[in-house]
Design a protein that fits this description.
- Helices cover about 35% and strands about 15% of the residues.
- It is an alpha/beta fold.
- The longest helix has 12 residues, at about 75-85.
- The strands form 3 sheets. The protein has a 5-stranded mixed β-sheet with strand order 5-4-3-8-9.
Length: about 200
């Protein structure tokens, strides 16, 4: 069994960490935003330092917003690779793809190298976007310790003083600023397909 296979199998054992069990910050309890609700405005910078602002993007067309955990997560790498391979399916419908992550810019660079991502990836430095979309949660201590055992230091990976991750959610935001489609599953092994997203556009 290869190292990647063993690592992936180990991650699978941690598939459903309790959301914010040991968190002193109740605001970081993750929950899905409702279809039909107004998408929270956000702005940030992609890995190249270019501005990314929802309001400006919506002037051009609908926005598909993804959240991912980090370059260390094989499920995230697989999802982003598949997204890159099928990106034209979404852009052909006028959609713009934006990806948000808590990981540091250096780690975003590793994600790009692994997935060949050409879409903007925003470093959510202060967790502002993740909090607004209620994807952020504090990983419980037992799970964080297990991750450390596999060489994953979440605090170091994200440049934070807490072990915080996003639920890898996906939202389709219409040009009117409302959420037209939402995929939110705390089991990080389960991801939405590009085909499902395309049907929502």
């Amino acid at each position: 069994m290869s190292l990647l296979t063993r690592f992936t199998a180990a991650l699978a054992l941690l598939a459903s960490p309790a959301l914010a069990q040991s968190s002193p910050t109740p605001a970081l309890t993750a929950s899905a935003l409702a279809v039909g609700s107004v998408a929270p405005a956000f702005k940030g910078q992609d890995a190249a330092g270019r501005p990314v602002e929802l309001r400006q993007l919506l002037k051009k067309g609908p926005v598909v917003l993804y959240f991912y955990r980090g370059q260390w997560c094989p499920y995230c790498n697989k999802e982003l690779s598949q997204l890159q391979d099928s990106l034209q399916v979404l852009t052909a419908k006028g959609a713009q793809v934006v990806v948000v992550t808590p990981e540091t810019p250096a780690n975003i660079g590793q994600t790009v190298a692994k997935t060949k991502a050409s879409f903007p990836i925003v470093h959510d430095r202060d967790l502002t976007i993740m909090k607004a979309y209620k994807t952020a949660f504090v990983v419980d201590d037992a799970t964080a310790t297990k991750y450390l055992g596999y060489g994953i230091d979440l605090k170091k990976a994200n440049g934070l003083d807490q072990n915080i991750l996003p639920v890898p959610a996906t939202y389709v935001i219409g040009r009117d600023g409302t959420i037209r489609f939402a995929y939110f599953n705390p089991d990080y092994r389960q991801r939405v397909s590009v085909r499902q997203v395309a049907r929502a556009l």
